Protein 1
Amino acid sequence: GAVVSQHPSWVICKSGTSVKIECRSLDFQATTMFWYRQFPKQSLMLMATSNEGSKATYEQGVEKDKFLINHASLTLSTLTVTSAHPEDSSFYICSARDPSERTDTQYFGPGTRLTVL
Amino acid sequence: DAKTTQPPSMDCAEGRAANLPCNHSTISGNEYVYWYRQIHSQGPQYIIHGLKNNETNEMASLIITEDRKSSTLILPHATLRDTAVYYCIVDTGRRALTFGSGTRLQVQP
């Protein structure tokens, strides 16, 4: 199957700083990528849909000014957590659809664990 | 979105087949049944999906009932590395996936 990578795999930052997480589709072009977060002992929750060349669509309750998403190319989407606070500590996961597959299977990155001190 | 119902947890002996059930009684005609698993502290891993026919790949088999209201994921020879949370999701494949609580499969040595 297709491969999606994320960088970094983990990051620790101080409260008030910004953190950028990259999501790349390695062997396919993705016009749409999705960003999820997962808190301990919970399931994945969709944060936003990232569309190449246009603005991201955010889920209800997700602050678009805090979680900046840029999808500047067909293989890269970035999520920037601005002015991070301890409550933003979570596991952030991206996914992308491979449009070349008939049924648009989604593939997930390995995740980025963010810890805000 | 069609919703799914899965048992919260299951145990399986190493080397035996693991059969994970999923109910999706409100599935629509154009929705696929997808199975993913999440090993601790990793992103979800795609396993298999199907529309109405049974499917098999190198990882697992998917059995979908004729009325499509339920399905079973079969891991033919479970290993300790198959210990994970397994998610059954029904979707058209063109939207973000909605994850439920899944089934926590514990493979016992």
Protein 2
Amino acid sequence: NAGVTQTPKFQVLKTGQSMTLQCAQDMNHNSMYWYRQDPGMGLRLIYYSASEGTTDKGEVPNGYNVSRLNKREFSLRLESAAPSQTSVYFCASRQNRDWVNQPQHFGDGTRLSIL
Amino acid sequence: AQKITQTQPGMFVQEKEAVTLDCTYDTSDPSYGLFWYKQPSSGEMIFLIYQGSYDQQNATEGRYSLNFQKARKSANLVISASQLGDSAMYFCAMREGLRDSSYKLIFGSGTRLLVRP
């Protein structure tokens, strides 16, 4: 019962380095999401993908790019990491159905520190 | 613009007692949904309960219930018979709109609950 799998779980980068966070789900969900969680704050949406082949900006997209590689995988890329991007990153997925109460299922998070 | 407010940064409750975690929201959309998630110290996000704006009854899920007061725009989480394992961060979140393609969640800042033995 893997659900949503994020890799890596921890990463330390230097300012200016690039990195791709990987996310895969095995629930055949249509929608996938990337959030960041900063200390004392709730999750903020970075990008999302309502279906394979589409991506849209969320609340805080600057400094990030995403790729919906296929239905299972949704990656988040930091092209030139900045200390302000130090955060915990969560990937989530959800099945698109007529019922509005389908919750998002979250991965365990990636703790990213940028020095 | 939609907004979620959780005014209690931290709360204590005695084991076996009930506790209410507050959540107020602001939206101009008549169609919306409210979710509660639990985040233990291990960090994962666990879905607890959902309330739709058109639901006639308050949602319940085991020891969790939602005190939904639409006119006051509040959706408070009630945990009955608290257990030590309930110690965690709790987030209220709202989705706006019924169209599935617009499904995005806005999260509150969370309430940290500590259950005392």
